[in-house]
Fold:
Amino acid sequence: MNHNISELLQWAMRTLTTEQRQLESQILLAKVLGRDRTFIFSHPEEMVTRELEAQFRSLIERRLAGEPCAYIIETREFWSLPLRVTPATLIPRPETERLVEIILERTSEEALSLLDLGTGSGAIALALGSERPKWTILATDISHAALEIARKNAAALNLMNIQFQYSNWFQEISDQIFDVIVSNPPYIAHQDPHLVEGDVRFEPRSALVSGATGLEAIQLLAKSALSYLKKGGIFCVEHGNTQGAAVREILVHYGYQNVTTELDLAGHERVTFGFYL
Structure:
């Protein structure tokens, strides 16, 4: 017996246990039907073939097993840009958009050079590149698979002012210097219980975990960035919502000036930056 769109959505919402089960059911059904969510809303009585229904039920089972919706559909929107994501990359999150906002607020539209360390899917670099076409952006990652995804995202968005390069943090950057250095580095301690909960179970551990305290990568980047920043340049990093004070202490220790932590939309300390003066 065939079912229509409305019936399948009702089944999916009864089956899923996620907080966003209504939204995720719509997203997954739209993926299977090759339509957008507007079609889902406007055609509730549309019948679905048995083949497509089977595909939809399979996707719901994957989500029920915990696989992130973004990995199932291989897409996540960031800064209103549709980005391809896979298990080789972190899933871009709204909190990281705060880092993009801060950089845009504190820089000009004139030609600047920016380095994005640990770019993953390219989310930060692509968002900034889309807003600042005069900028020259270099995005690096230690994962070749992630870099391939980032390159494809840039090509799909027709963003030509971004270059991608393999590098373990600064190791392959040579003697280049930049006006801005940004990163959303690993900042979770390796014993953190959140690593076995939710979507992060499926994300690349190397992009999440940084040593015993979670601050090791941030400390390394803050120290090393001083050799790659122009005078007056800005270093900006995302971190965990309880790490603001510790990150400020790190930046002050290495001599950054006007060190400031900004809040995310939930009111948590999320992004810290300082200037090399």
User: Anything to note?
Assistant: The mean pLDDT is 92. The domain at 3-65 is CATH 1.10.8.10 (Helicase, Ruva Protein; domain 3). The CA atoms of residues 179 and 230 lie 5 Å apart.
